[in-house]
Amino acid sequence: MTYAELLAQLLPARRFGVVLGLERMRAILDRLGAPDRRLGAIVHVGGTNGKGSTVAMIAALAAAAGQRGATYTSPHLSCLRERIMIDGAMISEGAMLAAADRVRSAGGDELTFFEQVTAIGMVAIAGAHVDVTVLEVGLGGRLDATNVVDPAVAVVTGVAMDHEAILGDTLAKIAAEKAGIYKPGRPAIIGASGLAEAVPGLVAQAHAAGASVTVIDDAAIAAVPPIALPGAHQRRNAAAAIAAIQALGLPVVAPALATVRHPGRFEVIGPPATPRGVDRVILDGAHNPHGAQALAEALRQRGERPVLVVAVSADKDVAGIAAALVPVVRAVIATRFQQDRAMDPEALAALFARSGASTTSEPSLREAVTAAAAYRAPILIAGSLFLVGEARTLLLGAPTDPMLVTDPPAR
User: Of 71, 104, 119, 198, which sits 20 to 30 A from 86 (CA to CA)?
Assistant: First the structure.
């Protein structure tokens, strides 16, 4: 089987949608010889925003401390193999195919798309014999497919409103789902990258689980050394990453944070990858109001006032995203990413216009970037990680799958 054939076989699993629960994962992992118990020391990372950046910083700190490491994250930007990184590199097609063959032989075809990819990731990482695996929650926490693991440390970066239809319509309900990754007798890190009013609930849930609790506070954030990722929100994420490394008993090699990269999160691209007359393009996957507020804060700190190229999934709080971003951009060009969950550009433009933005629409990212370049100003591409993935392919020639295979919408 080729890699393209694997993608074609995974695609039909999207029909199952998002199905929360641990029974299917536990059953197939047991049939596979429990690879989830051979991932080294596991750091499980959940939360509404900041998960990916926190994972990247934990992985960098672990590597600097001399540990062989792996990460499992989602979603991917342009290549499914991005989700499984071993020693800082995307898994090879051969290694992914071998792991996928084992999962399929164990009955993987009956799993959802995310469950299959998670099982493939665990099989592949177990075979790499790493010291530390940093595992990102897909959706929620308590019933997420990744929550079959017994982590050495669990981190919830913070909680804000998102995926209310699945996780609950109040902050307390969402926090309870996120806190479901905390385990008895294990360290529980409670980050500061969410709403402050959610923290007491997370603390109570962690204590109820029998976990030992560390809450990231202003002192921990102030103690963060220089980091490469811009924005005050990334210092909050870095504080949680440092606490996780300390909970593992590893030394904190601070210079590692000064070079860590996380594609698609305030990623600044310069010439020659930018359109003619544009000296920089900023890519950021902010896709909910809280993430958009963090992005706006980072723009203000840097004195940036770019033209915004935006696309948003139809189930998102567009009004909240617009309210955060419109005050810090000079114009808005609404577009879409090439998936059926994307909001219609004209409808998206109308919603941004209600927030007072000078707004137009274009049917595709390429056309939107061309229109934005006419302003001869920095361009911000944001609103969806799917859009950011397309932008990295368009501007950087990033590794891109031969067919589009992504998680189904969470409804």
Answer: 104
